[in-house]
């Protein structure tokens, strides 16, 4: 497991926990022989339990981070399945902005989940809410359309333009004006 930079505050701590849980989920997924259904969910659940065992997060915090991680992995996998594009387009900005490590982890998780998703019916596109922990990317406010760029795993803030709290992930390869977090 990669040594992650120590967090500077609670928001950073949740982002670090998100990345650690993603790493553990990838490790766990290699040990799961039944690749049907939501096997990545099982891998994330094991990572969530481990975070609680190690007292890295409270049970409630760990459950929240696990749900966010499951959502993001499924969303990335659905994007790969639907478009066949590079994962950097799902993230919404160039790779240089974030670590190769997080891209590699998401690529592994999304690739494995894409195979499982083909066996499941498609769900509606994921919505993101203020205070959700999210993977890096660009998020579009459902109220005003303003774009917010998140450069590393962390908490999604309210829209800086209208204080809206519901977002969708911008998976277009287009640039544009956006707030940065």
Count of β-strands: 7
Helix content: 40-55%
The oligomeric state is single chain
Main beta sheet strand tally, sense and closure? 5 strands, mixed
Report mean pLDDT, rounded to a whole number. Answer: 77
- Structural classification: alpha+beta
Distance between the amino and carboxyl termini: 26 Å
If strands are numbered along the chain, what order do they take across the biggest sheet?
A: 1-6-3-4-7
Summarize the structure.
The protein is an alpha+beta fold and 181 residues long.
Describe the structure.
This protein is α+β, with helices and mostly antiparallel strands. The chain is 46% helix and 12% strand. It contains 5 helices and 7 strands, in the order H-H-H-H-H-E-E-E-E-E-E-E. Strands 1-6-3-4-7 form a 5-stranded mixed β-sheet, with no helix packed on it. It comes from Solemya velum gill symbiont. It holds the Pfam family DUF1451. This is Zinc ribbon-containing protein.
Reconstruct the topology from this structure:
Elements: H1 10-29, H2 39-53, H3 59-83, H4 87-91, H5 100-117, E1 128-129, E2 133-134, E3 137-141, E4 147-150, E5 154-155, E6 166-169, E7 178-180
Parallel strand pairs: 4-7
Antiparallel strand pairs: 1-6, 2-5, 3-4, 3-6
């Amino acid at each position: 497991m990669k040594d992650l930079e120590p967090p500077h505050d609670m928001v950073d701590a949740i982002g670090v926990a998100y990345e650690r849980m993603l790493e553990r989920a990838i490790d766990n997924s290699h040990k799961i022989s039944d690749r049907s259904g939501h096997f990545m969910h099982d891998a994330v659940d094991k990572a969530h339990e481990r975070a609680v065992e190690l007292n890295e997060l409270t049970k409630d915090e760990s459950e929240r981070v696990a749900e966010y991680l499951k959502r993001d992995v499924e969303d990335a996998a659905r994007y790969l399945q639907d478009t066949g594009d590079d994962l950097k387009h799902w993230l919404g900005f160039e790779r240089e902005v974030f670590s190769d490590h997080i891209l590699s982890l998401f690529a592994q998780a999304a690739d494995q989940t894409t195979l499982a998703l083909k066996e499941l019916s498609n769900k509606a596109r994921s919505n993101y809410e203020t205070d959700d922990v999210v993977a890096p990317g660009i998020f579009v406010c459902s109220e005003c359309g303003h774009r917010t760029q998140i450069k590393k795993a962390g908490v999604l803030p309210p829209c800086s333009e209208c204080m809206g709290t519901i977002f969708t992930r911008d998976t277009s390869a287009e640039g544009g004006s956006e707030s940065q977090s």
